[in-house]
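Amino Acid Chain and Its Fold in Token Form
===========================================
What this section holds: a protein sequence and its matching fold, both as plain text.
Structure line: whole-number tokens from a learned vocabulary of local backbone shapes, matched to residues.
Purpose: to set a sequence beside its fold so the mapping can be learned.
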Amino acid sequence: MLLTGFEPFAGDQTNPSGDAVVRLGAAWNGPARLVTAVLPVDFARAGAELIELVATHRPDVVIATGLAGGRDAITPERIAVNLRDARIPDNAGHQPVDTASIPGAPLAYASSLPVKAIATEIAASGIPASVSLSAGS
């Protein structure tokens, strides 16, 4: 299993997604092998690093986490959108607008995960959770 989060950005000192990945990796004692990584907040590097991690470790499952500023809940996403449209620059100063993440690929991909059930289980454990349509909503 591969679990990723992101480094801090936009002047923040921490990023909960990266912090959680590091903490879980240190505490992991499960039967499955867990590989963790904190990715750069850099449009030019993050995707390539993720692809390299998948090629190197060949995980059965990839869980990519991120921070949605202002949200007060965990929000698993139903749809991955093939669009880069940054409201602020990344840590390397890139700020793509209306460009495809993967040129020529479909605009969106539906998750194969039971995101409603995942959100329900998280909420049942006492952690606020709801379903997000996509990372930008």
Notes: Residues 73-137 form one domain. The CA atoms of residues 39 and 50 lie 8 Å apart. Residues 16-27 form the longest helix (12 residues).
